Amino acid sequence: MINKIVQSMADAMAGIKDGSTVLIGGFGAVGQPDQLIEALIEQGAKDLTCVANNAGTGRVGLARLMELGRVRKIICSFPRSAGSVVFEELYRAGKIELEIVPQGTMAERMRAAGAGVPAFFTATSVGTILAHGKEEREFNGRRYVMEHALKGDVALVEAWEGDRWGNLTYRSSGRNFNPVMAMAADLTIAQVSHIRELGELVPENVHTPGIFVNRVIHVDRGPAWA
Amino acid sequence: MQGFDRKGMAARLAQDIPEGWIVNLGIGIPTMVGDYVPLDREVIFHSENGILGMGPAPAADKVDPWLVNAGKQPVTLRPGGSYCHHADSFAMIRGGHIDLCVLGAFEVAANGDIANWATSENDTAPAVGGAMDLGAGAKRLWVIMEHTTKDGRPKLVEQCGYPLTTPAAVKRVYTNLGVFEVVPGKGFVVVDLAPGLTLEQVQSVTGAPLHTQ
Questions:
Q1: CATH second-level architecture of A18-100+151-220?
Q2: Which of A1, B118, B127, B184 is deepest in the core (most CB within 10 A)?
């Protein structure tokens, strides 16, 4: 029997190695797998490269992971936002490396990794400092820059429902980066608000087919998110 | 020189959005534009975090924490609205499916260059978000911003001093002092000025020539 549902966070985090690239879903707090990030803090892997749209807020979650010195590099589109204090402290002190990527390029780089596309051309960032050092080509009279696929060793994603085959659905704007990150990593771990029986999810409405998911764990996010 | 306040600027821009357009509004004053498009004019608002058919902010007791806009503020979904993931949402942008994007800016140049994400080459941790995707991918880019900086320097300029977001992308600029079309080979052309202002007054706080139609 295929059963991707795990019962403990220790089982969910098993095998994550030092030096891993970790894709972390979410757009701000929405769709962000907070409990998995806490479990990664607990698990102890270090020298991580984290890929997330934002660079953490306050001193919890991703910010806490960074504050503990466990993140070598962050790849994101919007590092500075209200409350990104830890990132700013570490960045000023030269203790964290930053790769800034336009948001659409970031999503597409992970989609490409999941789809077996090693690189692609996009008009985004042409003529700007973010295109420096990148190969450019002209197609149909317009210039494009080459961007490489962005693959993760691990993806931490948040979904609304999941079943034992790893099929996932997402809740409204909580979908955001989660499906592309789920596709792009060797080990995809999903925290879900609801575990469903196999066959219970409407097949037409599965957002991430189980092929992209390795482990599913139930979490209770509290009444506000129920 | 006063001209429009922020609400007036947003309302002025909203007048020019026709029924049927799919529109992405940036963070800040651009977000306010949505409040001035009457609900009976069917304009579909897109938010880059995966919402097509976004509605206005909910009442305080109707907030759904799962549903936020690109500025992470609570919003609603209109009937007919849908959700998608980030790569599909940016395919809508980068694939040229968005009729109009409205962004704020630090500077707009007479050739349509926009700078709105970093305040110097040395600003090594600026936040680009989706601005470069929107600048390069939307069918039209309009900018809404104050005409000058807080200390009175022009924001409509010959050439941007700040790092570019997208070259030659802006089609129109809405400021507190008026509306300006960016015409290739010519520069800023006045569409109209805020009530009570003269061309000479507005030109005196603009860093590039203003042309009349």
A1: 3-Layer(aba) Sandwich (3.40)
A2: B118
In a domain, B108, yes or no: yes
C-alpha triplet A51, A54, A60: angle, nearest 5°: 95
Token couple for A171? 């809740």
The total domain count for chain B is 1
pLDDT digits (tens, 9 = 90+) for B133-190: 999 999 999 999 999 999 999 999 999 999 999 999 999 999 999 999 999 999 999 9
Which residue is closest to A90 within chain B, CA to CA?
A: B125
Query: Domain range spanning residue B47?
Result: 6-211
Condensed to tens digits (0 to 9), the pLDDT of residues B74-84 reads 999 999 999 99
Q: d(Cα A92, Cα A111) in Å, to the nearest integer?
A: 32
> Domain residue spans in chain A?
18-100+151-220
* Model confidence pTM above 0.90: yes
Is B48 one of the annotated active-site residues of the chain?
A: yes
Cβ(A124)–Cβ(B94) below 8 Å: yes
Tokens found for residue A196: 């469903």
Instruction: Answer whether A102's CB lies under 8 Å from A130's CB.
Output: yes
Distance CA A39, CA A29 (A): 17
Is position B1 within any domain? Answer: no
Contact A30 B124 (CB under 8 A): no
DSSP states of A4-47: -B-SSHHHHHTTPPTT-EEEE--BTTBT--HHHHHHHHHH---S
CA dist A77 and B130 (Å) reads 8
Catalytic residue among B48, B121, B146, B181: B48
Interface probe for A, chosen from B90, B141, B159, B162 (most Cβ of A below 10 Å), is B90
Give the CATH number of the domain where residue B181 resides. Answer: 3.40.1080.10
C-alpha distances in angstroms, B62 versus B57, B75, B78, B81, B93? Answer: 9, 10, 14, 18, 30
Alpha-carbon distance B213 to B210, whole Å?
10
Q: Per-residue pLDDT for B120 more than 90? A: no
Residue at B153: amino acid letter: R
Q: Select from A103, A140, A207 the residue whose CB has the most chain B CBs within 10 Å, as the one to mutate to test that interface.
A: A103
CB count, 10 Å around CB of B126? 18
